[in-house]
Amino acid sequence: MTLTANKTNVEEQAIAAKKAAKSLSLLTTEEKNEALLTLASTLEEQFGNILEANEKDLDRGREKGFDEAFMDRLSLSKERIFDFANGLREVSELEDPTGLTVSGWTLENDLDVAKVTVPLGVIGMIYEARPNVTVDATGLALKSGNAIVLKGGSNAITSNKAIVDVMHKALEKTKIPKEAVQFINTTDREATQQLFTMKEHVDVLIPRGGGALINAVVNNATVPVLETGVGNCHIYIDKEADTKMALSILVNAKTDRPAVCNAAETVIIHRDWLAENKEQLIETFNKYNITVHGDEEACAVIPDCTPAGEEDWANEYLSLDIAVKTADTAADAINHIEKYGTKHSEAIITDNKETAKMFMTLVDAAAIYHNASTRFTDGSALGFGAEIGISTQKLHARGPMGLPALTTVKYMMTGNGQTR
Amino acid sequence: MTLTANKTNVEEQAIAAKKAAKSLSLLTTEEKNEALLTLASTLEEQFGNILEANEKDLDRGREKGFDEAFMDRLSLSKERIFDFANGLREVSELEDPTGLTVSGWTLENDLDVAKVTVPLGVIGMIYEARPNVTVDATGLALKSGNAIVLKGGSNAITSNKAIVDVMHKALEKTKIPKEAVQFINTTDREATQQLFTMKEHVDVLIPRGGGALINAVVNNATVPVLETGVGNCHIYIDKEADTKMALSILVNAKTDRPAVCNAAETVIIHRDWLAENKEQLIETFNKYNITVHGDEEACAVIPDCTPAGEEDWANEYLSLDIAVKTADTAADAINHIEKYGTKHSEAIITDNKETAKMFMTLVDAAAIYHNASTRFTDGSALGFGAEIGISTQKLHARGPMGLPALTTVKYMMTGNGQTR
C-alpha cells in the first residue's frame, strides 16, 4: 500500500498546524492539561480500534520478515495503550514550560524588559515505526503549547493513523483545536522531504531513530533540526581504575539494555590495567555472553576475540557485542572518542581526580561520567519526567530534552513612549 | 585578484581550529583576558600596517564604484582601530560565560549531576566587507573559549588579512594558540561552501550580513546555523494609540539609524487613527523627509505616496523609505506581520492593554514592544555588553546574542561506581 501526498497537502497541513499553534498559545495551563487528560481517557476507551489497526501493520511486518526486536517495537497491546495514556497523565502533571520569566529588568529609561518562555510553534516529528512516539511526542508538544506534524515510519502507518484518529476525536471535546495534531498519512518519502524545507510553517524538525534517518534530515533540512539519539558511547578504564567498579560499570553499560542509545559500544582499556586484570575481564565477558571485537593487543589476551576494524570503532552495535581498544594514556582514549564518538555519553573509570578532570574537560559530549555508568543519560533517570529525545548536538538543548527544550524565548518590552 | 583555496586547505584550517579549541578550553579566565588585552595593545601598536592594507581594499572599492555607505563600512582609520582595541578591552571585562553551573543536583543513588556551560568549540563566522567584525567576533569567540574560522567579504580581504596577521603576532605572546583564529584567505566561494558542511570540525556557523548571505548559509549548510540580523520590523499604530507617542516612536524607529536591522520598515495604521490624525502624520513624514509607499487607502490621504506592492511589504529598505499599510483591526496587523515579518522586532502603540497583550502573545518575533521603539533590540541598549549578532531564529538564542550564546552545556556526572 502506497498512499501519495502532493506538495499542497503537506503544505496545507503545516499551515493548518501553524494556525492551530496560535490558538494553542492563548490557552491556559489548565486548559492544556484538561485536554491531555481527555486524550488519555479516550485512548483507553478506544484501545480496540487501535489494536485492530495495529494487527494490519503486524501482518505486513510478518510478511516482510522483520526481526523480533522490530516487531516488538511495532506491536501494541491493551496494556501498552494504557501505558501511553498514563504517560499523558504524567505530562499533564509536569510544570508548564511556557510563560516563565527567565529574566526581567528595567532600563534606565523605565522600559520594562522581560525574557519570557514561549512555545516554538510547529514541531515536525520524524520517527521510525514506533507508535508510542505518536502519543508521547503529541503529549509533550501540546503541553508546551506547540502544534505537531507527525511523520512516522511507513511500517506503522495504520497504527499511527488509528491513534491520531482517536486523538482527533478526543481533541474535539477540548479547547485545543484538532488541527494542532497533523498526521502525514502517506508512505511517500516526498512528503517527508517537503517538511524538511517548510521554514515558513515549521519551526523545528526532531528526527528520532537511527543514524540513517537522522542524517537524512540533517543533510536535507533547511528547517532547524534538533538531532537526537545516536549513541556510540565509550567506557574508558584508566590504569588507576578500581577493578570491581570498572567491571560492574562495564557490565551495566553494555548489558543492562544493549539496544538503547546510552549503552556502551566500545570499552577503551589502559594497557597496564588490562595486563593486571585480564582474567577477571575475560571471565566477565564470558559470564555475560559479551562478544568481543578487539584491537591487536586486546585480541592477544582475550580468547574468542574478533579483530576489530574501522567499522567496529564507529559501530553502534545495540547488541551484546563490544569493541575493545587498548590505550597507552588517557589522552589516547580522549583522541579515540574525539574520532569515533557521537557526542552522547562517555565515561572514565579512575581513582585519579586529575585524570578524570582532564577527561571531563576535553571530551566533547552531552554527558561525561566519572566512575558511573553511561546509562543515566535519560530524562526519567535524571528526573526530567518525559523526554522528547536525547540531543547530541550543541545548540539549543543538549542531552535529555524535556519540555523546556520545546520552548524558545521572546523579549516582551513594555514602555510609555520610549525612543532611543 | 582571486586567490584559490582547495578543500584540503580549508579542512586543514578547520581541523587546526578544533585542535586549538581544546587547548583554549583548558585556559583560565585570566589567561583569556590577558590574551584579549595583548590583542588590543598590538592592534593599536600596528595600526599602520592595517591602514596600509585597508587602502588597497578602498582603491579596489573605488574602482568598482561602491556606494558611500559601503565604502564607509569598509574604511578604517586610526581612531576606528583604537575603537576595536577598546572593544576587546570591554570584552575582557565581561563575565566568563563558561564553567558556570546552570543547575546541579544529586540523584538518590548519590550520583552528582552538574549542568555546566562550556564553549561551543569552533565557530564559523561568515560576514560581509566589514573589517570590524573580524576583531569583534574574534574577541567574543576567544573570551567564550571558542576557536573561530573567519570568512569575511571579499572586498575587505586585504584589510582582514592584515588584522588577522596582527592578531596572530599578538597571540604568540599569549597562552591562546594562534591556530584558534583561522582566516580563509581567498575570494573563492568554494571555500565558503566547504565550511558549510564541515560538521565534524565546525560546531556552528554564524552568518552576519544581508538576507542573501544569510539565505545562502541556511540553504546550504549542514553545520547548525545561528541566523542573525535581517529585520523587516513593523510599528502598528492601533486605534487607541496616543497621537504624540505614536508619531514620536514612528520617527525614532524609522529615522534614528535607518540602516540598522532594528529600524522600522513598515507602519501599519488603524483606519480610525489614520482618519483622525492624518494631518499630523503627513506633517511628520514631510518634516523627516520620509518617502511613503502606501496601500490604496494610505495613498488616498497621504500626498506623494507611491503605491506599494508585495515587494514593499517584504522590503528591508534600510533608508528613509517606509511602507504604510492600513488595517481594520489589530488582528489584521498581526496577520500582516505573520506574513511579511522576519521575526526580529515588532511594536504596537496602544493605550488598550488587552489589545497589547494579544499582539504580544500572537506576534512571533524575538522582541515585541508595547509603546516603545523597536530600536532597543540591541545588545548594548539592553546591557549585554558586546553582541555577536541578533538572532532571528528560535533555537538556542533569540534576540541580541552576547557571550552566553557562544556556549553550550555539558552534564558532568561524578559517581562512585553507580550503575542502573
TrEMBL record, chains A, B:
<keyword id="KW-0963">Cytoplasm</keyword>
<dbReference type="InterPro" id="IPR000965">
    <property type="entry name" value="GPR_dom"/>
</dbReference>
<protein>
    <recommendedName>
        <fullName>Gamma-glutamyl phosphate reductase</fullName>
        <ecNumber>1.2.1.41</ecNumber>
    </recommendedName>
</protein>
<dbReference type="InterPro" id="IPR016163">
    <property type="entry name" value="Ald_DH_C"/>
</dbReference>
<dbReference type="InterPro" id="IPR016162">
    <property type="entry name" value="Ald_DH_N"/>
</dbReference>
<comment type="pathway">
    <text>Amino-acid biosynthesis; L-proline biosynthesis; L-glutamate 5-semialdehyde from L-glutamate: step 2/2.</text>
</comment>
<feature type="domain" description="Aldehyde dehydrogenase">
    <location>
        <begin position="5"/>
        <end position="293"/>
    </location>
</feature>
<dbReference type="InterPro" id="IPR020593">
    <property type="entry name" value="G-glutamylP_reductase_CS"/>
</dbReference>
<dbReference type="InterPro" id="IPR015590">
    <property type="entry name" value="Aldehyde_DH_dom"/>
</dbReference>
<comment type="function">
    <text>Catalyzes the NADPH-dependent reduction of L-glutamate 5-phosphate into L-glutamate 5-semialdehyde and phosphate. The product spontaneously undergoes cyclization to form 1-pyrroline-5-carboxylate.</text>
</comment>
<dbReference type="GO" id="GO:0050661">
    <property type="term" value="F:NADP binding"/>
</dbReference>
<keyword id="KW-0521">NADP</keyword>
<keyword id="KW-0560">Oxidoreductase</keyword>
<dbReference type="InterPro" id="IPR012134">
    <property type="entry name" value="Glu-5-SA_DH"/>
</dbReference>
<dbReference type="Pfam" id="PF00171">
    <property type="entry name" value="Aldedh"/>
</dbReference>
<keyword id="KW-0641">Proline biosynthesis</keyword>
<dbReference type="GO" id="GO:0005737">
    <property type="term" value="C:cytoplasm"/>
</dbReference>
<comment type="similarity">
    <text>Belongs to the gamma-glutamyl phosphate reductase family.</text>
</comment>
<dbReference type="InterPro" id="IPR016161">
    <property type="entry name" value="Ald_DH/histidinol_DH"/>
</dbReference>
<dbReference type="GO" id="GO:0004350">
    <property type="term" value="F:glutamate-5-semialdehyde dehydrogenase activity"/>
</dbReference>
<keyword id="KW-0028">Amino-acid biosynthesis</keyword>
<dbReference type="GO" id="GO:0055129">
    <property type="term" value="P:L-proline biosynthetic process"/>
</dbReference>
